[in-house]
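Good morning,

Attaching, inline, the backbone tokens for the sequence recovery test we're adding to the shared suite. The designed sequence is right after.
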């Protein structure tokens, strides 16, 4: 699995990081009475959105990483979570968007989804999803 390139910024620009847990509830709003709420998933993922500054060389590295290394963002990669600093697996949810500030000074907007999956609870016990699509059952 690829890793976030060391030549790219390793932390978001101050004040640009947004972390949003995935919504895993279904909410039904009847005509009368309070909304009815239930969980519709066992695990909530996490969406991250942030900006990083980039030189011309870093811009090229970022686009090459997204296009070539990650197959236009289809493949996952590892990177240190910007809050926990734990190495996790991520996937791009959008192509990086670049805003040029001046010659050799750009800001890249990054949107990621954390692929770290805690144990899922099923009727037959806990399991972890494996990379090959299988599952490891824990009794």
């Amino acid at each position: 699995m690829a890793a976030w390139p060391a030549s790219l910024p390793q932390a978001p620009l101050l004040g640009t990081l947004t972390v949003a847990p995935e919504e895993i509830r279904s909410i039904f709003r009847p005509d009368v009475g309070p909304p009815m709420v239930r969980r519709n998933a066992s695990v909530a993922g996490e969406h991250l959105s942030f900006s990083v500054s980039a030189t011309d060389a870093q811009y090229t590295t970022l686009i090459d990483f997204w296009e070539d290394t990650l197959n236009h963002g289809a493949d996952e990669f590892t990177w240190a979570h910007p809050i926990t600093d734990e190495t996790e697996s991520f996937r791009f949810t959008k192509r990086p968007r670049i805003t040029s500030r001046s010659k050799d000074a750009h800001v890249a907007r990054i949107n990621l989804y954390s692929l770290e999956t805690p144990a899922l609870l099923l009727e037959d016990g806990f399991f972890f999803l494996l990379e090959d699509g299988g599952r490891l059952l824990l009794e």
